[in-house]
Write a structure and sequence with these properties.
By secondary structure, this protein is of the alpha/beta class. It has one domain: Rossmann fold, CATH 3.40.50.150. Helix content is 34%, strand content 26%. A seven-stranded mixed β-sheet has the order 3-2-1-4-5-9-8, sandwiched between helices. A two-stranded antiparallel sheet has the order 6-7. The longest helix is centred in the N-terminal third of the chain and has 15 residues. The mean pLDDT is 95. The structure holds S-adenosylmethionine (SAM). The site of S-adenosylmethionine has 22 residues, from α7. S-adenosylmethionine binds next to α7.
Length: 261
């Protein structure tokens, strides 16, 4: 299908429909949501990756990727391309009426973490840790333009790059673009999908760049990283969800930005 970047996201990406379909338990996709939560926990839990600042690239209206990270970073900066997504996130941050109910996902994370804290405390901690919600375009050489931030200790990006990039060349450049926001020696965490050509949010179909594991690894290494870990999680429900998306697997990658002396 034709590439649906920029304006299609701005006008037709419905945050509530996205959250209901892709970020809710009980929709038939619990396995992949659990995979993402577990990997984030292992990556960011004590002794793992931490520091002062984490920037989430293409946060969208979603926060599942940040529940464990808020334990190991002093501040998180959320970003997204569309105003509606940023508004949806602000609604949750400000506890406004109609904000998405993350309680089931937060409870799942707290259980994975051994119930050290109550879900309500975890949500509050994440609210306190997200200090800014900024506009972002991964296709720009400074994705946060006109904002210039001190380099971060860690970047995370979940299911954003393959939706924002029309081909592999743009994907490779987008990784280089976001890398300018990261300190040498800092970490990049990518959550993505493999083989996906489209996904459906409400009535709107969005294009997706079908990736394979080796292309992702090559793009990350070419951007100046060493790969610390990549895990591929096959999707078992492909047929039943074929009307919503056509990926065959999720992946979770952790890489370290090389320090050039
Ligand atoms: C599939 S959603 C993923 C949202 C969230 N990170 C998650 O894991 O559920 C893709 C996100 O990428 C954002 N996006 C699309 N084009 C972008 C661009 N050029 N730069 C940054 N973000 C973009 C969209 O606005 C949307 O929020």
């Amino acid at each position: 299908m034709e590439f649906t970047g920029g304006e299609t996201y701005q006008s037709n990406f419905d945050p509530k429909a996205y959250l209901a379909t892709f970020c809710s338990f009980g929709t038939g996709r619990d396995g992949t949501l659990n995979f993402r939560l577990q990997k984030c926990l292992k990556t960011f839990s004590s002794g793992g990756i931490g520091g002062h600042t984490l920037i989430d690239i293409g946060t969208g209206p979603s926060i599942y990727q940040l529940f464990s990270a808020c334990e190991s970073f002093k501040q998180i900066i959320a970003t997204d391309f569309t105003e509606r997504n940023r508004q949806e996130l602000e609604r949750w941050l400000k506890k406004e009426p109609g904000a998405f109910d993350w309680s089931v996902a937060v409870k799942a994370v707290c259980e994975l973490e051994g119930n050290r804290e109550k879900p309500i405390e975890k949500e509050e901690k994440l609210r306190r840790t997200i200090k800014q919600v900024l506009r972002c375009d991964v296709t720009k050489s400074n994705p946060l333009d006109p904002v210039v931030l001190p380099a971060a200790d860690c970047l995370i990006t979940a299911l954003c790059l393959e939706t924002a990039c029309r081909d592999l060349g743009v994907y490779q450049r987008a990784i280089k673009n976001i890398t300018t926001l990261l300190k040498p020696g800092g970490h990049l965490v990518i959550i993505g999908v493999l083989g996906n050509t489209f996904y459906k949010v409400g009535q709107q179909t969005f294009s997706c760049l079908p990736l394979d594991e080796q292309s992702v690894i090559n793009a990350v290494v070419d951007a100046g990283y060493s790969i610390k870990e990549i895990e591929v999680f096959p999707i078992t429900y492909i047929a039943s969800q074929a009307h919503i998306a056509d990926s065959y697997a999720y992946f979770f990658l952790v890489a370290k930005k090389e320090v050039h002396t």
